[in-house]
Amino acid sequence: MVTRPDRARGRSKAPRPSPVKEAADRLGVAVAQPENRAELLSAVAKVSPFDVGVVVAFGMILRPRVLEIPRRGFVNVHFSLLPRWRGAAPVERAILGGDESTGVTLMAMDRGLDTGAIISNRRTPIESGETSGDLLERLTYLAASVLEEDLSLFVDGYLVPAPQRSGAATYAPKIESAEAHLPMDASAEEVLRRIRAFNPRPGAFGILEGKRLKIWAAGFAACANLESGELSVVGDDLCLGVGDGAVSLGEVQAEGGRRMTGLDWARGRRGTTGHLT
Question: Which DSSP letter does residue 32 get?
Fold first, then answer.
């Protein structure tokens, strides 16, 4: 097993192993933790010859010298239906793009970024209200089943990779925190997609009185006569005016505070809500 070096995590900032290393240790599997590509090449070469290497969210580009070591090369499990959403953030981009479905793809790796030939894939609908965290968890289990069912078929030659249709490719660049700043003049549908896509990271937000107010959950609302960015309690809802109406804020988090329902947060402000920008 090859995984990234131990990294500082938690409040103590003490180095801690990745979940992959923890699992490997429990199973008695030898672990390598290369710091750079030269160390990665050395680690992989030491266990040659072997049939195939499997890459899942590794975070380091594999050079051709590494890709050529296994008899059947390396395969990658990518969390989209390639060639749609090549890149670092396919789950978030699928939700942001309003896709009705997504899936996982098992592909033979080449020198490009998610450009390798497709071995197999599995499709799944994106459920209404599903966050990136929810969808990623489901795709993780789906990816495991794809490996269990199809990897040996590929190694033995029963599954033949097919080239991607490059003309249909779309790209999923890394999510930048600035993208999570909600545009108050956007449509309710777009605002809700952004809230779902940026949950759990980095968290969609607006600015209220110079501080961030993160929004973790929201839904459509029938709150009339609100300006874009206006916050108002209407009945049992905390409503936020957007470009074509309003959304109801189900769960929010003030800067430095804890997560709570939108209504509880508004009550704590004694009914004074204000404007988000």
Answer: B
Answer whether residue 253 is part of any domain: yes
Residue 210 has pLDDT above 70, yes or no: yes
Q: Where are the beta strands (DSSP E) in the chain?
A: 7-9, 14-16, 53-55, 74-78, 86-87, 101-108, 118-125, 171-172, 204-208, 211-221, 230-234, 237-242, 245-254, 259-261, 274-275
Q: Is the pTM of this model over 0.85?
A: yes
> Model confidence at 272, in pLDDT bands (50, 70, 90)?
low
Number of domains present in the structure of the chain: 2
Task: Find all residues with CB under 8 Å of 179, minimum gap 6, and list them.
Answer: 194, 198
Residues of the domain holding 54? 50-172
pLDDT digits (tens, 9 = 90+) for 15-72: 999 999 999 999 999 999 999 999 999 999 999 899 999 999 888 889 999 999 999 9
Which residues face 6 on adjacent strands?
Answer: none
Which residues in 50-85 are b (16+ Cβ under 10 Å) and which e?
eeebebeeeeeebeeebbebbeebbbbbbbbbbbbb
Q: Are 184 and 277 in contact (CB under 8 A)?
A: yes
For residue 30, give both structure tokens. Answer: 């030898």
The whole-angstrom distance between residue 19's C-alpha and the CA centroid of its chain comes to 17
Residues 54 and 168 in one domain: yes
Are 133 and 54 within 8 A, CB to CB?
no
